[in-house]
Here is the input.
Amino acid sequence: MSDRDEISKTVFDYFEGYKTKDRARLERAFALDVANIMGNWKNQDGELELFSKPMKEVIDTWVSPDYTLKNFADGKILEIQMFSDVGATVLFDCGGVFTDTFQMAKVDGEWRIVNKFFVDQ
Here is the structure.
């Protein structure tokens, strides 16, 4: 499998893991020891607010029975930029709800998301 195919698989492990609350897929997608999420989230007043958290905490929230999932249509990769044999960035459309960018690193021979930045559309 090519690096681009492996990167795509990792991104869709995240996306499908989120949609189905599948902890194993989410944990497989991220380099959990270092991964963070940062984004511009619409607060209760509808204004964009910047925040950041470790992915371990966010995954706990996403798989919680009390968490209400966003209703996403199909996601699609808009662009993959390989800037070395162990580093890449990905631009991803989450069904028009969010636009994500991922910083990816090859860790122990496998592509993992090390940072996720999103903008709430």
Remarks:
- Residues 3-20 form the longest helix (18 residues).
